[in-house]
Amino acid sequence: MKSINLGIQIVPKSKDKDSYWLVDQAIEVIKNSGVKYEVTPFETVMEGPEEELMKIAKEAQEAVLTAGAEEILVYYRMQIRKSKDVTMGEKTDSWKQ
């Protein structure tokens, strides 16, 4: 199964819960999934099979709602190749210090 990159940004809305704490609940789901991922200031990027990443993304969304968000805005960005894997490293390794 070929790998893709999926970037997910979940923006929670809550009257009484801290937004960063709510986002942390989504990141915890991604962390516990076992897929390769990288947290950035605006989104979390995952690497793996598309079906698996979409399942994880749905679980992350549900975790934020379960943790107390009244509403969430979810933004996805995906890079998919027809016949070749997509890796985070090909985009960022040359910039790592």
Automatic annotation (TrEMBL):
UniProt domain Thiamine-binding protein: residue ranges: 8-94
Superkingdom of the organism of origin: Bacteria
Pfam families on file: Thiamine_BP (PF01910)
Gene3D superfamilies reported in the protein's UniProt record: 3.30.70.930
Family from the record: Belongs to the UPF0045 family.
Official protein name in the record: Thiamine-binding protein
Species lineage: Bacteria, Pseudomonadati, Bacteroidota, Cytophagia, Cytophagales
